Backbone:
């Protein structure tokens, strides 16, 4: 398929969607990545929905240096190994200037969106990368996202802002503190952490656990935490206050901002 498409030298947009995961037999017969890749000189937008193995097979055969928008949707899987996706992303310009990442939970999906600097609320769909995983409950969602990000995202030294949100649906409080810390550990350059009401109730206790030398192991560049006004009292405020105190004592102070 990739070889056939290579004749379309002016191809700018490409989307590949599968209706269901491939069989285990297909996965076991995967061939090694080719030594020579097909170049798509004009491709700007790449979309995919399917299992990670199929995507790995596809992008291992492609070079698309001008791609500036990628949307990936994965089916529910037990494990994700997307090292070849990381190599593909590193061969593009897309991750040289990421500034902001948004993590959104919903009932059946978890989303990660990565934006360049200057993107406003009016252009929120103009993401460099949109990654979604179809699964539930929320602890599985977070575990799956950490797996994918750990194996596929290249270093993001310019990413300064991380937002964690929950769409207006019932929240399943089944995520362990260690899972939140695994997610936050991936974003070492983040200076601004933004939490809406429901995620703040779970992320704050995880940050509270960071004491002593551990307090700067997660989000070492953090400067600001933004919370909603409803978090100015109660357990969230107490947990955040302990984290802020520990950061101040470590010589890496963090300010807390409240907004509507």
Residues:
């Amino acid at each position: 398929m990739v070889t056939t498409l290579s004749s379309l030298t002016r191809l700018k947009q490409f989307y590949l969607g599968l209706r269901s995961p491939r069989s285990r037999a297909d996965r076991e017969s995967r061939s090694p990545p080719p030594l020579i890749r097909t170049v798509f000189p004009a491709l700007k937008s790449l979309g995919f929905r399917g299992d990670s193995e199929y995507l790995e097979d596809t992008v291992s055969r492609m070079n698309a240096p001008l791609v500036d928008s990628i949307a990936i949707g994965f089916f529910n899987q037990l494990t994700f190994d997307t090292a070849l996706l990381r190599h593909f992303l590193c061969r593009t310009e897309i991750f040289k200037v990421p500034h902001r990442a948004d993590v959104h939970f919903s009932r059946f999906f978890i989303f990660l969106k990565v934006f360049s600097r200057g993107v406003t609320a009016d252009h929120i769909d103009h993401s460099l990368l949109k990654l979604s995983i179809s699964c539930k409950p929320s602890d599985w969602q977070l575990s799956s996202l950490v797996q994918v990000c750990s194996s596929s995202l290249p270093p993001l030294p310019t990413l300064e802002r991380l937002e964690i949100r929950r769409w207006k649906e019932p929240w399943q409080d089944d995520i362990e503190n260690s899972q939140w810390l695994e997610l936050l550990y991936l974003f070492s350059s983040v200076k601004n952490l933004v939490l809406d009401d429901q995620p703040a109730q779970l992320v704050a206790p995880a940050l509270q656990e960071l004491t002593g030398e551990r307090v700067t192991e997660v989000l070492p560049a953090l400067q600001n935490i933004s919370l909603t006004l409803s978090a100015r009292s109660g357990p969230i405020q107490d947990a955040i206050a302990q984290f802020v105190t520990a950061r101040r004592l470590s010589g890496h102070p963090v300010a807390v901002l409240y907004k509507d």
